[in-house]
Structures are given as structure tokens and as C-alpha cells.
Amino acid sequence: MIRDEIIALTAQALAAAQAVGDLPQFATPEITTEHPARPEHGDFSANLPLRIQGLARMKAIAVAEALQRHVPPHPAVDRVIVAPPGFLNFYLAPGWAAAQTDVIVGEGDRFAALDIGAGKRVQIEYVSANPTGPIHVGNGRGAAIGSALANVMRTAGYEVEQEYYVNDAGTQVAIFGRTLYARYEQLFGREVAIPENGYPGEYVVDVARAVKDRDGDRYLRAPGEEPDPDLGRVGLALMLDGIRSDLEHVGVHYDRWYSERSLMEDGGPYAEVMALLARQGQVARREGAVWFTSTDLGESKDNVLIRSDGQPTYYAMDIAYHYDKFIRRRFDRVIDIWGADHQGHVSRVKAAVTAVGGDADALDVLLYQLVTLRRGDVIVPLSKRAGEIVTLRDVVDEVGVDATRFFFLLAGANQTMDFDLELAKKQSDENPVYYVQYAHARIAGVLKRAIEEGHSAEGADVSLLTHEAEQTLLRKLLLLPEVVEKVVLELAPHHLTHYAQELASAFHAFYTQCRVIQADEPALTKARLRLLAATRIVLARTLALMGISAPDAMYSEARERA
Fold first, then answer.
1. Which CATH number fits domain 121-166+252-368: 3.40.47.10, 3.40.50.720, 3.40.50.620, 3.20.20.105?
2. Prior bond to 85 cis, omega within 30?
3. Best CA proximity match to 179, nearest among 192, 191, 167, 195
4. How far apart are CA 250 and CA 434, in angstroms?
5. Of 488, 481, 490, 461, which Cα lies nearest the Cα of 542?
6. In this structure, are strands 388-389 and 383-385 parallel, antiparallel, or unpaired?
């Protein structure tokens, strides 16, 4: 990344200034840069003079002037300007920026691939909704965040495994089984009510009907008898098939679907973890229950592991699950993506990871906030009728996969978000995903026309790319590696949507100001076709990282001009 070279140049300038006595000796602090908001202030700005003026015992502007004199020459840097109150502003050389067009085209789908991860194994667990209901809108946000993050981390050099934790044990599963049996009985004409706290949604009727159509009355028992437990397992399997189908429909594919039940099977980690905590003196028996003495690890209170009825708590299962992640499967890093309502669970899971021998610092928990569905100014109730939620499939069927994923990624995970269904369907520049995909389709249309008219970028002289709109687009293309890094360091894939829109804007401005195919300017035509090829690569790469398609056409080619 050129940013890193700018930082290195600044460090070299500091060392050279100190060597000749223009600045006093002191340890070099961390050097950072930012992109000025206004292009006339340069491409990169270093605030080092402001940060070291106290150490230098000089005004920041004087420090900046001293550093400026010692910045070594670099082919990428056109000039370095001192700006009040003490910034070093770096301007990229237009010829160097233009030459990066060939670099991008040469790297192709490898452009912006980094080695931050250095092959470390990271597991990303996300969605993991109870298989007692369909995937709803809120789950969909977690799905988009998790899968996009997995794509980016893989690009950044991590070995990524994506996992869905299937909650196929516990109280809610039992309630689902009894609800399903009541619906199953109703299909055979019995007048029975669904159990208290049961699942009233119509989808349970659909599952019961599917079982009846396939297996007839196989699971029917005499009135009043307990339901066959196999019916609940069959129902959960059908629900899970639906969940898998819905997620695959939006481009989410897991490497493993991990069964909660397997934690307690013979050889599973649950018994091993309980024995380990007992040996370490980290459990206590009180009020007929077994407690994890998490206060010894800095938690504000102890937590129940096994209830007085002998049933393990959700927390106990989570400890066993994370023991399996860190100790048995030995992931270098674990990222859990949960809904914001799990916030209170984060610190105690980290405490448990420490207790079982894992590295709590290697566990990142990303919490995402709620989604509000809208149609313009009107809020769409997330429950359409009693027991019926707005599902992820409902949204996808209405606005499409690409718009669904893009809109879910628009806001940072820690922000509540509005999803405007009407805007997501618009075929206009108001719709951000349309605006970005439209840029890619425009490029494809021009490149197709160029081939038809006998033009190519072969032998292009990219030094001709000197127009302000060309240079602005070039500089925007070069930012993708920084965006990839930022997404990884902050676990924030929403940066991709912002970058995609900025890149599309730079392209559309170029397209408006710079005619590409010009019969009387063959050399310039070649150079601009080369720039289009590079832009197409970066746009497609950015969309792919978000799990979104890069279409070659979106409307009549008759509307296009080159």
C-alpha cells in the first residue's frame, strides 16, 4: 500500500532531521496518515509535527518544515507541502498514479489481497438462530455481516471457517416439539390447543403438514400421551433445511453446522469441561445448583452452570462450545457475531474462555443492532400477524439478493438501521446498490462496444491519463487495499459499501467528463479503455467481497454513450 510507503518516508525524514540536528533526539512515535477531506490538501496528510512538537520543543509548523526538508524522493510522490498548524501533506505524482492502472490489471482478482492474517485460522460463527422458526430480518443482517467479513478476512490472508451453531437442545426445542405435535394432531381432526408459550406461527402448521404427507400417522399417539420425541427431531430437521435454503439463497455458505446436542454426546466436550472446572476449584454447589465462580475471574457475579433440575444452562453449553473452538479445534482466533440483546453475555463468555485455557483476547464478539423495515416514511411491522414474523425470504423475494445484502451492510453493526424496501427496489441513482452496479454495467457496455468497433487497450500509454477526473478515479481505485485492512482491523464490513459508492461516484464523474472511444484519438482511447478495465476489476472485487453480483447490463444499451 502506498500509504505505508508514505509513513516510511515520514519516518525517514524524522531520522534524517535528527541526524543533522534539525530536530532533537527522541524515540520515534507511531506515525499515521489520513486522507484530507479536500483534494487540494493532498492525497495523504501526516500530523506527526503536531504530535511531537512537545518532544521537539518547537512549534508544530517549524517541526513540519524541518521534516519537509528531509523527505527523501520517491517516484509516487510529486510534492510535500507544509500546512498550518503543522501538517505534512503528500501529493501523489500523476504519472505514478496512472501507471498503477497496469498494476491493477496485472493483479486482476488478486488486487487488494493482503497478508494480515498470515495463514492464521479464524472461525466466524454467525446467525445461529434457533431452528424453531424461520430466519427473520434481524438474522439477515447478521448473515450479511458475517459472510462479508469472512470474504474480506480470507482476502486478508486468514484461513477462515464459517460456522452455524445449531441450538437443537434445551427448553425451546422441547416446546417446539410439543407445538409441532399439537399441529400434527389437528391435521388428523383432533381439537387440541397448542401448548402455553408454544409457537403460534403458521410455519409450524406447514412443517406438521410436510411430516403428515411424508409419514402419515406414524407419530400419532393416543390422546393425552406424550408426543414421540422423534417427531420433534424430524421437525427440527425440516426447519433446518429451510434455514439452510434461505441462507444459501442469499449467498451464505457454512463450512460446518455444529449441533449443540453433540456437546453432550459421548466424547463431547461438555463432560470434559465440567470436570476441568471442578478440578480447578471453579465450581460451587449452592441452592441445589452448580455455579461457575466467575467472580474469581473479575465478573460481578457467579453464574449457574447446572440448574437444580439437573439441566445445563445455555451458559454451560456455551463454555463447552468455546472450549471446543479454542482447545480441541485450536483456532487462532474466534469471532462470534451476535444480536445486541446478547451484550450482557460477552464478558462472562470471555471469563469462561480464560478459565478453560483459551485466550480471551483471541475472542472477538461483534454485536449488531436492530433493523427497522420501512416503505418510505411508513414503518413495516416485523410481525405481519400473530406469530408470523417478516422473514429474510420475504425481503429477498421483494427486493432481490443484491439489494438485501447491500442494505444490510450500509450501517455499522453498532448502529440501528433503517431498511427502506421501496428505495431498495428503485432502478435509479437514489438506490445505492443500483448506483454501484450501474457503474459496472456501464463499463461492461463501453468495453463491449470497443471490441465491436475494433478498439483495444493493447499497448496503452497510460501516462496520457492526466485529466482531473481520470486522476481522481485512479486515486480512488488505489484505496481498496486500505479498505480491506480497515474492515479486518475494525471488523466493520460496512466500509465496503461506503467505498463502493465513492468509487462509483468517481467513475460516473469520469464517464460524464471524459469520452472514452474517440476515433480521432486512438492513443487516448487505448489509455481510457485500460483505465476502464482497471475500474471494472476493482468494482467487481468490491462487490464480490460483499457477496454481491457485478452485472454487465441493467438497462437498454441504447441509453449508453461512450
1. 3.40.50.620
2. yes
3. 195
4. 17
5. 481
6. antiparallel
Whole-prediction pTM = 0.94
Name residue 163's beta-bridge partners: 125, 256
The answer to whether the beta carbons of residues 204 and 388 sit under 8 Å apart is no
Closest CA to 354 of 277, 256, 250, 290: 277
Residue in the block written with cell 422473514: 391
Residues in the chain: 562
Q: Residue 35 has which C-alpha cell?
A: 486522507
Residue 28's contacts (CB-CB under 8 Å, 6 or more residues apart) are 11, 14, 15
Distance CA 406, CA 437 (A): 11
Q: Strand locations in 22-68, DSSP E?
A: 33-34, 44-46
The one-letter amino acid at 523: A
Contact 10, 48 (CB under 8 A): yes
* 350-369: b (≥16 Cβ within 10 Å) or e: bbbbbbbebebebbebbbbb
Relative to beta strand 371-375, strand 417-420 is: parallel
Q: What is the CATH number of domain 432-559?
A: 1.10.730.10
Domain 2-92: homologous superfamily in CATH? Arginyl tRNA synthetase N-terminal domain (3.30.1360.70)
Q: Is the pLDDT of residue 562 over 60?
A: no
- Torsions phi, psi of 31, nearest 5? -105, 130
Please give the pLDDT value at position 556. 41
**First-to-last C-alpha distance (Å) of the chain:** 32
Rounded (10°) CA dihedral 353, 355, 359, 361: 70
pLDDT at 146 exceeding the cut of 90: yes
Residues in a beta bridge with 124: 162, 335
Closest CA to 252 of 405, 440, 453: 405
Higher pLDDT, 135 or 560: 135
The set of cell numbers assigned to 7 is: 509513513
DSSP-derived secondary structure for 60-109: HHHHHHHHHHHPPP-TTEEEEEEETTTEEEEEE-HHHHHHHHHHHHHHGG
Please give the Cα distance from 146 to 129 (Å, whole number).
Answer: 13
Structure confidence by residue, pLDDT tens digits, 212-258: 999 999 999 999 899 999 999 999 999 999 999 999 999 999 999 99
Domains of the chain by residue range: 2-92, 121-166+252-368, 171-249, 432-559
Kindly tell me the burial class for residue 223, based on how many C-beta atoms sit within 10 Å of its own C-beta (0-12, 13-18, 19 or more).
Answer: exposed
Does residue 293 register a pLDDT over 50? yes
Q: Which amino acid is it at 87?
A: F
Say whether 517 sits in a helix, a strand or coil. Answer: coil
Please give the grid coordinates belonging to residue 57.
Answer: 520543543
Q: 171-187 and 202-215 are packed helices; what angle lies between their axes, rounded to 10 degrees?
A: 60
Beta-bridged to residue 161, according to DSSP, are: 123
